[in-house]
Amino acid sequence: MPVTKKPDGWYWGSKGPFDTKQKAVQVGQAAHAAEFKEKREKGLVIAIDYHDTYNTDPKLWDCIINMFWWRKDDVVCISRDHKGKEDEILDNIGKVIGKENVYFTQGKAKKDFAKENGIDVDIWIDDNTKHILEDDE
Known about the structure:
The structure is a single chain. This protein starts with a strand and ends with a helix. Strand 1 and strand 2 form a beta hairpin. It has 137 residues and is an alpha/beta fold. The radius of gyration is 20 Å and the shape is elongated. It has 6 helices and 7 strands; from the N terminus they run βββαβαβααβαβα. The strands form 2 sheets. The protein has a 4-stranded parallel β-sheet with strand order 6-5-4-7. The protein has a 3-stranded antiparallel β-sheet with strand order 1-2-3, covered by helices on one side.
């Protein structure tokens, strides 16, 4: 959230007023640190793309997924593939992370799809970041 100056003092988002800008910044930093600690305690959500990412070296990615699990992180696969290509993905990464953790956006931007489906992704692993942010044309 931004730090702003108002007539009665400094604010971090809606929190304030504070006597100095430095105090408002410190409040913001403390809030971010608390949020990060909370996320670390419950684990991160990591989204791995399938085509040209996982399928480039499944054995390597399986090892990396195991490291994520060791850290108590959750792993999902979010793919923009259209109907008819699901079986390949479900038969590969789906067998590793669980088919219930594989999602198909049908061409929709992955980030929007995740948000609409209540998936709060912390880290995206994708060979093409455009697919995270933009729908198919």
